[in-house]
Amino acid sequence: MRSVAILGIGQTKIDEHWDRSLRDLAGEAILAALRDAGRDSAEALFVGNMMSGIVNDQNNLAALIADWSGLGFDNAPWPGRQGRQPGHGVEAVKIEAACGSGGAAFRAGLMAVASGEMESALVVGAEKMTDRGPHEVTAALATAADADYETEAGVSFVGLNALIMRRYMHEYGWKHADFAPFSINAHANAMHNPYARLHQKITVEDFEKSHMVATPINLLDASPIGDGAAAALLVPAETLSRASRIVISGSASATDTLAVHDRPEVLFLTAAYKSAQAAYKMAGVTPKEIDVFELHDAFSIMSALSLEACGFAERGQGPRLGLDNEINPNGRVPICTRGGLKARGHPVGATGVYQIVEVVQQLRGECGETQVDGARIGMTQNIGGSGATIVTHVLTSDVKR
Amino acid sequence: MRSVAILGIGQTKIDEHWDRSLRDLAGEAILAALRDAGRDSAEALFVGNMMSGIVNDQNNLAALIADWSGLGFDNAPWPGRQGRQPGHGVEAVKIEAACGSGGAAFRAGLMAVASGEMESALVVGAEKMTDRGPHEVTAALATAADADYETEAGVSFVGLNALIMRRYMHEYGWKHADFAPFSINAHANAMHNPYARLHQKITVEDFEKSHMVATPINLLDASPIGDGAAAALLVPAETLSRASRIVISGSASATDTLAVHDRPEVLFLTAAYKSAQAAYKMAGVTPKEIDVFELHDAFSIMSALSLEACGFAERGQGPRLGLDNEINPNGRVPICTRGGLKARGHPVGATGVYQIVEVVQQLRGECGETQVDGARIGMTQNIGGSGATIVTHVLTSDVKR
């Protein structure tokens, strides 16, 4: 595979965008990424999205977004028509892997450029969830679980994560407040991210007093849904000068059983371990060299499990990193530096691309108050389902700062 | 890109499989393709599916199918566990491009192997549509159209195609019976395909007397939905001996506006033209050299438009090929040799992979009564929406027969 770099990034604020359509949000992020890259278009569009078919009555989403965003020009006049036809025509496809859709779409774009099949690819993660009521969105999120063997039994997606968290607390002796630092760090960092959904500092007391959702997960353990889109433009690294590029040095994806009860170990994210190991190997790095890690904190328990599976903490010791102040931007393992899923927000199929955009911002040194000093190697990990599909990327900066 | 070959194929009968689940159908096709290839597993799974989120309450489908099919082995024991863990773990992702999902998934698998990222990839197209009532499936199919500007106005997917067909008949002076040969050929060929949904010969009289669906499209202009799955195993061509391989010599995808009313020309499939031209160029062939063409006859009008856009007929003259007996297995442009969407059936997201499987059968000389004599170069074209996403592949056989 030839090496691939990220030339441009774009994102929308995550919010309840009741006056915007899904295509419109995606278009805003795409045009921002193109503007950032100084480009007009790209040869293909890869869309990460989970639930447009369910909550927006829209499939065939990638063609729709490509057209709306004016991607591509028809340079081959067809019989009966002459000249350059602007505004449509690029290859476009949607990738779905539940909440891991964004990361999976990014990996698909990477392979398309790495293969030599194309010289540029846009990846956009886009989701619009707030036009429907809470029960409809809860039902849509539950499609990430096993419909026949989990959802059919009445368990919601947060319910599944609650079972995992309860078992984890029982097994390793943690109390609920021990998870507070994950949410506190995320909320604190989001204060400095204008694209974040929540701008609200929280304390341990807030965390403990918050409304219960599914014991032991309360509102401040859980990430908010939202509407938003994030985009990145990929080009061959060889076309850029070494002094100004951010390269995708590691990329891997792995799966686990969809149903949590089918796993021999419910407290270890096997697919996170596998994909992280493969990405480390490809990038030639170890966890110690990762300067910033945008992980998938859909629920606080997932932060702990992701840190453990990726080699940043011993098994059962994830919460220790938070309690020891190691996860903030000045710590040993900075996570959720732009707010994470918890406070930046979690527009499910878009999240994986937001993570990429945020790591690029860190490697460019654009993060102000939450900048990780001298960040040069960053990592993202995007999870679909309760650990069923996990996509890990390592980005390396050649930028001299 | 390195050259990629198809080593194994598998498929289920298309039917109303009320006693089978979606994962079960996909697993049957995958295991058949692995058996055909003499392999145990593959490094990744690419799933083509349109509507599992809507009609099966199931997203994250690729991880589910990978697990159910027992794909992958965990050769990297994780902390606390030892040895080879069978049965799950391969990278898996779902590709959605409405009824073009299967072809798009096949192209994603191609790029993954061509890039050098992996040495094998399974592609499966799978759809299970008959557990829901007709109005629910009609609504699900309508998500292939523009939700805000077409579906919102009350037009169904067949309604959109009816508008196109009516305009075509008006513009070029064809009468409805002139489209009969497309359906008659498809039904005649399906008689010899045990995997086809419909085994029922039809006549011009049947065609003309059939129940109206949306004027001028009647029941025998339209393909039936169904439950089914088809799979193919892709490996680098260099790993196989020249004398026994079928190579993907051309591959391309293009898009058009989702909304039909946004197109400057509604009677020309621009994306079909673009993707066919690109695939021809990549394969180094012209339409004259194509021995067999599995096209996307979701409605008879689409057969005509596809033949014209791909260079087999002049504009407005597609039906002539049928009337002149050129489209049957002994004709100049054999199409739908295993029954096409019309009679083999159209399990929407699976169809594109069925087309690939059927062309491989032709190039292997396995088609008995409907075998195209000496077929060496075959083509598939898979369409998502009313021409919005179009994926074209050219397969070339090195097999000596």
Average pLDDT value of chain A? Answer: 94
Give the CA-based shape of chain A.
Answer: globular
SSE topology string of chain A: EHEHHEEEHEHHHHEEEEHEHHHHEE
The tally of strands of chain A reads 13
Query: Can you summarize the main beta sheet of chain A?
Result: 5 strands, mixed
Q: Kindly, what is the distance between the CA atoms of the first and last residues of chain A, rounded to a whole number of angstroms?
A: 28 Å
Query: Which range best describes the helical content of chain A: under 10%, 10-25%, 25-40%, 40-55%, 55-70% or over 70%?
Result: 25-40%
Low-confidence sequence ranges of chain A: 75-81
Structural class, from secondary structure content of chain A? alpha/beta
How much is the radius of gyration of chain A in Å? 20 Å
- Quaternary organization: homodimer
Strand order of the largest sheet of chain A: 1-9-6-2-5
The pair of chains with the biggest contact is: A-B, 80 and 80 residues
Report the portion of residues of chain A in β strands. 15-25%
Count of alpha/pi helices of chain A: 13
